[in-house]
Amino acid sequence: MLAAVAAAVALHQWPYASMDEAAKAALTEAAACSAGVRECGVAIYEWLEPGSSRRWYFYSAIETSNKPFGVEITALGLPPPTHMRLVADAHIHVCLPQNRPYAPFFSVGDVLVNQAMHTVGYMADLCSMNIHRYDPAQDDADDEEIDFSSGRKLYLTIGHVVGWLGLRRISK
């Protein structure tokens, strides 16, 4: 039944027992898509098994901007598949010399999307290979002070590290 649900809505075929597991699988696939030079991301959905309290998690097809910074996950702007609800998004932060110090942080845009949509955000930092989780219901959006060489300060968050990609470091 689960495979039929996934096939009917063009989601990844394998269901995951937790949102963190789905995010790790999606980010592993997104890291390969990224090739270390472009952001890639997905939407993550929850499906409640009929007649049960069992929840299953699926992720959408990988999308890319073909740019090193920023990816628009079109699935976030669409209604969720039937009998599912959008619970998270996941994307890659590439590891390039110009963003290496900031790769482990969720951007202001990342945080605003998750706050507005009441969803969890996952991000894999390809410099450290850590998987970060930002939950607006639990995490501060501005718990780290970032000092730029210009003297400007910005407050960002790394959320919580919830795992790592089992790959070698991908950077240029």
Ordered list of secondary-structure elements with their pairings:
Layout: H1 2-8, H2 19-34, E1 40-48, E2 55-59, E3 63-64, E4 84-93, H3 108-117, E5 120-125, E6 130-134, E7 144-147, E8 153-156, E9 160-164
Parallel strand pairs: 4-5
Antiparallel strand pairs: 1-2, 1-3, 1-4, 5-6, 6-9, 7-8
Notes on the structure:
With 172 residues, this protein is an alpha+beta fold. It has one domain. 19% of the residues lie in helices and 29% in strands. The strands form two sheets. Strands 1, 2, 3, 4, 5, 6 and 9 form a seven-stranded mixed beta sheet that branches. A two-stranded antiparallel ribbon has the order 7-8. The longest helix has 16 residues. It starts with a helix and ends in an 8-residue tail after the last strand.
Question: Which key terms come to mind for this protein?
Answer:
two-stranded antiparallel sheet; disordered N terminus; 172 residues; 9 strands
CA-CA gap between termini: 42 Å
Low-confidence stretches: 1-9
**Which structural category do the helix and sheet elements fall into?**
alpha+beta
Mean pLDDT: 80
The major pleated sheet works out as:
7 strands, mixed
Number of β-strand runs: 9
Question: Which overall shape is indicated by the principal axes computed on the Cα atoms?
Answer: globular
CA gyration radius, whole angstroms: 16 Å
- So how many helices? 3
- Helix proportion: 10-25%
Quickly count the domains: 1
Could you give the order of the helices and strands?
A: HHEEEEHEEEEE
Determine the strand fraction and express it as a percent band.
25-35%
